[in-house]
Amino acid sequence: MENALFTSGGKQNRDCGTHKTSKIHWCKILEIMATFAKPENALKRAEELITVGQKQDALQALHDLITSRRYRAWQKTLERIMFKYVELCVDMRRGRFAKDGLIQYRIVCQQVNINSLEEVIKHFMHLATERAELARNQAQALEEALDVEDLEADKRPEDLMLSYVSGEKGKDRSDRELVTPWFKFLWETYRTVLEILRNNSRLEALYAMTAHRAFQFCKQYKRTTEFRRLCEIIRNHLANLNKYRDQRDRPDLSAPESLQLYLDTRFEQLKVATELGLWQEAFRSIEDIYGLMCMVKKTPKASLMVVYYGKLTEIFWMSSNHLYHAYAWLKIFSLQKGFNKNLSQKDLQLIASSVVLAALSVPPYDQSYGASHLELENEKERSLRMANLIGFEVEPKTENRVVLSRSSLLSELVSKGVMSCVTQEVKDLYHLLENEFLPLDLALKVQPVLAKISKLSGKLSSVSSVPEVQLSQYVPALEKLATLRLLQQVSQVYQTIQIDNISKMIPFFDFTVIEKISVDAVRRNFLAIKVDHMKGAVFFGKQSIEAEGLRDHLSLFAESLSKARTMIYPPAKKAAKLGDALSNLAEIVEKEHSRLLARKSIIEKRKEVQERLLLEMELVEESKRRELQKMTEDAEQKRIAAEYEQRRNQRILKEIEDRELEEAQAMLQEAEKRSKRKKKPVLEGEKMTKQVIMELALNEQLRERQEREKKLQKFAKTMDHLERAKREEAAPLIEAAYKQRLAEEAALHEREQQQEIELSRQRHAGDLEEKKRLGRMLENKRILEERVSSSREAEFNRMKRERQERISQIIQARKQEREARRKMIYFLRSEEERQKRLQEEEEARKREEVERRKKEEAERQAKLDEIAEKQRKRMLELDEKERREKEEILRRPTAVLPTSGGRPTEVGGTAPVPAAAATAPAAGKYVPRPLRAKVDAAAPVAPPPETDRWGGSGSKADDRPSWRDERRPTSFGSGSRTSWSGSRR
Question: pTM value?
Answer without folding.
Answer: 0.49
